[in-house]
């Protein structure tokens, strides 16, 4: 089965998420960092796409990067990532909470970093 | 693996294992203003593209039709690992009216926005600036992208034409040049630091 056929078709895409349009947690943003939990085997019931996603996250990536590499919409990948966090296959790397802005200390570190570029 | 998978990397260009935090900056502006050029100039990875479907209220109401439509919007983005543990993501978003709902969502948690301006089409920027002020409270800096045939207006004239607040930074930039693009980010983050909302230390 070629997943390419699913792309750019909203109805088929969402079959991949059992019809859900919203993730099981609402803390995921495009910049949220995710990473595979290496010690956790992927469930035998996982889809090919879910396996591909976990494989992709053997190192840290932002949700938007995962979506770009899989050529799927961010909102769809958010649903899949959320499920894979629930099954213990992925971990959310970024330690900040949704709706919490970076503090001044973080901005200062960013500024220092930018000035060194 | 099928052939459809061969045109993308088997593994992404992963962040260093020490990176545990991400922040984002939006790059907003009209089509062709140089958003992706600027992102590409500073990004440590080739800019990536992702598509998002958004439901928008359609313009003009037809009583017989649902007044919503689904649009696909492409976002180009890049990243810079700015310190051992922080990655900065730059998300380019189109400036047109039908994408304004998208920005409101994307602006959530953002450090701020770079609003890119082409002085040859200054009128394209008015609505973008109005909406950014109306829909989000995020800090922004105005970036005048210098094209070879751009009229050479003094920045203060551009500031007046755009009716910017005195504290809003405005900088010239060559979006193709890395250092020039980095300077726009420094300007934005310095401006963001003056906002009370970022004063809290929450390391």
TrEMBL record, chain A:
Pfam families: DUF742
InterPro entries cross-referenced by the UniProt entry: DUF742
PANTHER family (alphabetical): DUF742 DOMAIN-CONTAINING PROTEIN
Protein name stated in the entry: DUF742 domain-containing protein
